[in-house]
Amino acid sequence: MLKAQRSSSAIVQQRARQMRFSLTPLEAALWEALRRGQLGVKFRRQVAIGRFIADFCAPAARLIVEVDGGYHARRAGADARRDRALRRLGYRVLRLDAALVMSRLPEAVARVREALRE
Which of 11, 62, 82, 102 has the largest CB neighbor count within 10 A? Predict the structure, then answer.
């Protein structure tokens, strides 16, 4: 069992590494606003946390930011289970609609800033 867990963890880590180099245009736009401590904390992109990969994570603030496109509308139940599992690991999850990031990026960044203050 332990060997299977290690193997699974390695797969998640490898997939996260691959995803860092293939951000969607919306993720890339948000990343430009989050990177280099611009909001007072360091964010990382495509981070493996347990068996999940978070779009963005500020480890010091224990905040995960997810950009949700149309695909997520069809998987609300799975996303809710994932969020609960991440909360059990000590993280807060902020979900931003892709349409918000695309059309009103400053508002999306303001929501991240607000979540950091909470």
Answer: 82
Residue with tokens 């509308």: 73
How far is residue 111 CA from its own chain's centroid?
14
- Coil, helix or strand at residue 92: strand
Alpha carbon distance 98, 115 (integer Å): 17
Q: How many CB atoms lie within 10 A of CB 107?
A: 11
Residues 53-99: tens digit of each pLDDT: 899 999 999 999 999 876 645 677 888 999 999 999 999 999 999 99
